[in-house]
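Entry:
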Amino acid sequence: MSPITTTASDDQRFALIIQPTGVFRLLAWLPVSTPRHALCCDTARPVDLTTTLTLWVDEDAAAYGEKPNQAAHGLISQLFPTSG
């Protein structure tokens, strides 16, 4: 199977949606897109990881008894390992 390739212009934006099951999808981030819509939640909080990468967190997930998203945590730990 060949890798998926795409060409994007500098003004195109994308969101990587990582489900707690580990399933992920790339979402075209349109001018009408919102984090609340992409996460299917009521309260989304931004966490700046870099100047160009923002993690959006569903603030209500824990209140509704959702378990932490281990797939997202794993990706973040690979991108930004802690020193020590």
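The longest strand covers residues 14-18.
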